[in-house]
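Lecture notes, unit on protein representations.

Consider one protein chain, 79 amino acids long.
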Amino acid sequence: MRTERRVRLFKNGKNQALRIPKDFELPGNEVIISKEGSQLIVKPVKRSSLLKLLSTLETLDEDFPDVDESLLPPEKIEF
């Protein structure tokens, strides 16, 4: 099912802009815009998950220093 709305264009500085009605809101704060003939196509930018990004990184073969060894043991707190 195709949904359409008529909206007004306006100038924002040197750019042409339009207000997107609430029922057409896109997720996030960035979009990809492209032009096919006389049509503009607006697509939301898909956010990559942190786990997906981390899975692309190489593992480190370094030993990290023990930063806790010079600290006093934590005190037990009762509630």
